[in-house]
Amino acid sequence: MADQNISFVRHDQIPPSPPPTSAAGPVKWARENLFSGPVNTIMTLLAIFIIYRLVAGAFPWFWNGVWDADSIRECRDILTAAGKSTGACFAVLVDRWDHLLFGFKYPATEYWRPTLAFVLLLFAAAPALFYKYVPRKFLLFTALYPFIAFWLVWGGSLWVPVVILVSIIATMFAFRAVEGLDVNMRRILAGIVGLASGLGLAYLLYQGATELWFISNSVGTGGAFAAISSYLFKAASIFMFVFFIPMGIFVGYAIYDDAEGGGLVTIVTSLFVLYALLAYVLGPLSSGLNSVIPLELQAVPSRDMGGYMLCMILGVVCVSLSIPLGILLALGRQSSMPLIKGVCVVFIEFIRGVPLITLLFVANVMLAYFMPPESNFDLILRVIIMITMFSSAYIAEVIRGGLAALPKGQYEAADSLGLNYTQATRLIILPQALKISIPGIVNVAVGLFKDTTLVSVISMFDIVGMIRGPIQQSTDWISIYWEVYLFAALVFFVVCYSISQYSQWLERELRTDHR
Fold it and tell me: Do 380 and 446 reside in the same domain of the chain?
């Protein structure tokens, strides 16, 4: 029998078979991450049991929630009539949503103003936060937004923020003009500005010493704490009485001695120009313009602001101000000039050693002692100053850690390129240090935004103050707790989680190492 060739060769490739179910997809992920060993399996089952118990206990409370009622008693009557043993009374959110968001004194007809300011905030923040994807020309709106938001939220004449903006622009021109003077003219200007600064500082220190002596006599004599406080205020007053003239002479001479470099005299002169414009030009000019072209909104005093709007105002303003101030403090702490370094170190260590709630009490009570009689220093402005000081001290330490993490070769590279201190800091040092410091800065920003609720202890009705005050103390919602506090937690979580996600995205965008 002849041999027959029965071999066969395929003309096309057999398609690959899919991997087994246990080696791909969710099953593989669960095996590797949740059930990879006895310990992980036990912990996974325990976590599933705990989550199940929490969901099983909370779900009926959410599912049976009542959204239409005028009081907590009516909510309970509705639940009883429906035969339900448990259920949330979300009707308080429907009934008091305006108080939770805007406070109970802000005019209801003007709610559109803070709402519009919040919407415009998103457009104003986009050019700064997503600078790679938004044209740079939109930064002009970002620069104008603080003045627009101020007018929308506080109201009054439109010409007030317009004149403030013009004053800032005029100050920038004054800065450029002084910077461009020759050495001889700058020396003459430095002598004048140094004399005015020295006399002004000596006068302020003398007035401060007088106020401290008055406070020491007003503290009282009851108890050891009052006696110790009185002695501390007297010691501070005596110290300022002794050194108010030497400090004035030192500051005046320091400004005059910096005439050749020009940095200090330029900054101080610009501050004098800004103070003169705001103190003597703002009021008459804005009133005159408003009499010719009246552009006004209903004025709302700071005491009438509250709810979540107040938290947003404090959070946005304080974070925006504390980051540049923290950068200056961090650079000042690393300065080779003993006076600047000493001032920054004392400021940072003192602020970090004092609780924020203490600073808020100082803003509410103590600052009034240091103001001229019959002066009206806005409470929100005082709180903004204290919270900004508090957060800037922590941000300064975060940025100082970023500066310390840079290798010495970066500083040497800047020196080898012939860059001066300002150029090296702006172009080489700070961009790298800020990139390293992003997680720490975001951590401080998130903590600061949540700490704005502490203003409720000084009788400012933020969202927590509204819950603890007008809502829970009303006869309709006297024993309501979980619903309103969960709502407050939700709105804070949305903002803080958004900040966290943006920081992670920014870190990925700025990652320049090998990937």
Answer: yes
Please tell me the distance from the alpha carbon of residue 79 to that of residue 63, in angstroms, as a whole number.
Answer: 12
Segments in 406-429 forming alpha helices (H)? 408-416, 421-424
The total domain count for the chain is 3
Give the amino acid at 161: P
The confidence band for 225, taking pLDDT boundaries of 50, 70 and 90, is low
Residue 342 lies in a domain: yes
For residue 340, what pLDDT is reported? 76
Q: Are 401 and 444 in contact (CB under 8 A)?
A: no
The structure tokens listed for 285 are: 């000019």
What proportions of the chain, in percent to the nearest 5, are helix, strand and coil? Answer: 75, 0, 25
Q: Which residue has the higher pLDDT, 511 or 192?
A: 192
Which residue, chain included where needed, has tokens 């910077």?
179
Give me the pLDDT at residue 145, please. Answer: 92
Residue 445 has pLDDT above 70, yes or no: yes
Same-domain status, 399 and 483: yes
Quick check: 68 pLDDT over 50? yes
Q: Give CA 463 to chain center in angstroms.
A: 17
* DSSP-derived 3-state class of residue 450: helix
Instruction: Give Cα separations from 288 to 34, 157, 299, 323 (angstroms).
Output: 72, 11, 18, 36
C-alpha span between 293 and 450 (Å, rounded):
41
- Give the separation between CA 235 and CA 217, rounded to whole angstroms: 12
Nearest to 491 by CA among 305, 300, 310, 322: 310
Identify whether residues 358 and 408 lie together within a single domain.
Answer: yes
**Facing residues of 157 across strands?**
296
One domain, residues 68 and 105: no
* Domain span including residue 477: 98-155+302-510
What is the spatial distance between Cα 81 and Cα 474, in angstroms, rounded to a whole number? 25
Residue 372's φ and ψ, nearest 5 degrees, are: -60, 155
Closest CA to 317 of 497, 104, 125: 125
246's tokens: 């030497």
